[in-house]
Design brief:
By secondary structure, the chain is an alpha+beta fold. The protein is built from nine helices and 25 strands. The protein starts with a helix and ends in a 13-residue tail after the last helix.
């Protein structure tokens, strides 16, 4: 079984990387993505022909590789990225899911969507402009979403004569800033997306740089984690009771393992009730197995007939999350309608949806200068702020820092089902957790 588990970890680590790109307007982000797809030979011939024709229609002699990702008509007309564009490509070493996110301030919510599941973020900076306000916003969002790896791509090096001091100054400034937010790993790479320098192939113009190209780093960055060390969590999605002649007494609890590993014979707790029992069987793909791990979809069989329904959470008896009705979290507000103190909402956490009320909005993060605005009263589209929510029924939440899956939730409008905010339970930034305990609320957004 140990060998089987290790094989699953190795497969997860070496075959798939989810990453997001972000950058200010005109930093060349879409061009970088297009160059990455083009030079890694991940574009079909008819796609390239369409881009070449569209470029000619716009009076451009060379193909505009940005058009490979800017698929909306408004994006093509304005030369900007508006919506998140997902691209799937692969090399001999790894498969990739790429989320190309917008750079405009008013599309912050789109970046949050694209980066929420990313294991790596590529932040572009124009070598001529250096670190600007929007660069800091992107670093803050990456830190907030606990993206473990960040790549600083200093683009348009050809326009600064491939000067090493320019790159070094930008890399030093960004690295210090991102590290202060708690970003655990930052890799700086000098590139020219337009010319293809250090994107897929090493540059012939920057012999002073000895690090990896963008693609080489994407192919080799470690994204594995020890599945046995994760907090095991199993949100129940469906209760299976065939009550047939073949299976008259069968009772199983189906769902997808959100994190960690479950084993037959293990003592578990069912939350929010807190009842304990033992796993007597695990069914996967029609067969009984002794062990299962995230993100497998399985059915658990338990020793006792406990009242369990959709939305309950099964976790190890000695490693269960806290059950609470009072949630303090950071949210990114994604709806056009504001979120206000006293507003009644639905909160969706894994497979459980309960009624709730927004009790307080203590602060809003001003993304222009990363300052704290106290007691704003409401959050509007693209705002990031701290909230306090009281739920009608208990929820078993982890801190987002411990689990991006079971530490996250959505706030939903009960009237029409619109998603209002994306929430992350617990402290805002890793840097805040590492700091000494705060004496007052002002330390919550201490940078």
């Amino acid at each position: 079984m140990t060998t089987q588990l290790q094989s699953a970890e190795q497969l997860s680590a070496t075959t798939l990387l989810r990453f997001a790109t972000a950058g200010s307007v005109d930093d060349g982000k879409s061009t970088l993505v297009g160059r990455l797809l083009h030079d890694s030979k991940s574009i079909l011939t008819d796609q390239l022909e369409a881009v070449e024709q569209a470029s000619l229609n716009r009076g451009q002699e060379a193909p505009d590789l940005a058009l490979l990702t800017d698929g909306l008509r408004a994006e093509r007309e304005q030369g900007i990225t508006i919506d998140v564009a997902y691209r799937y490509f692969a090399t001999a070493r790894r498969r990739f899911i790429l989320a190309d996110t917008p750079g405009h301030v008013q599309y912050t919510r789109n970046m949050v969507t694209g980066a929420s599941t990313a294991e790596l973020a590529v932040v572009l900076v124009d070598a001529r402009n250096g670190v600007v306000e929007q660069t800091r916003r992107h670093a803050a969002v990456a830190a907030l979403l606990r993206v473990p790896h960040v790549v600083l791509a200093v683009n348009k090096m050809d326009l600064v004569d491939y000067a090493e001091p320019v790159f070094a100054a930008i890399a030093e400034e960004f690295t210090a800033y991102a590290a202060s937010l708690g970003v655990p790993e930052i890799t700086a790479i000098p590139i020219s997306a337009l010319a293809g320098d250090n994107v897929v192939e090493p540059s012939a113009h920057m012999d002073w740089y000895g690090g990896p190209t963008v693609l080489e780093h994407l192919e080799t960055v470690p994204v594995s984690h020890d599945l046995t060390a994760c907090h095991a969590r199993f949100p129940v999605q469906y209760v299976i009771r065939p009550q047939s002649a073949e299976h008259p007494d069968y009772r199983g609890y189906a769902g997808q393992i959100a994190a960690g590993v479950f084993r037959v014979g293990e003592a578990v707790s069912v939350l929010p009730s807190g009842r304990t029992t033992t796993i007597t069987g695990i069914d996967a793909l029609g067969e009984s197995v002794d062990i299962a791990w995230a993100p497998q979809s399985v059915t658990l069989r338990l020793a006792d007939d406990i009242d369990i329904s959709r939305g309950d959470l099964i976790a190890p008896a000695d490693d269960s999350p806290a059950v609470t009705q009072d949630i303090e979290a950071t949210v990114c507000h994604v709806a056009d309608q504001p979120l206000s103190v006293g507003q009644r909402v639905l909160i969706k956490h894994t497979t459980r949806t309960v009624k709730a009320i927004v009790k307080d909005i203590p602060s809003r993060l001003t993304l222009d200068d990363l300052s704290q605005h106290q007691a704003p009263g409401q959050l509007v589209a693209n705002d990031i702020g701290r909230i306090v929510v009281r739920t009608a029924e208990p929820l078993a939440l982890d801190a987002y820092a411990d689990s991006r899956r079971t530490g996250s939730f959505l706030l939903i409008d009960p009237a029409d089902g619109t998603t209002l905010s994306a929430g992350m339970a617990g402290a805002s930034f890793a840097a805040a957790e590492a700091a000494a305990p705060a004496a007052d609320d002002d330390a919550e957004w201490d940078f």
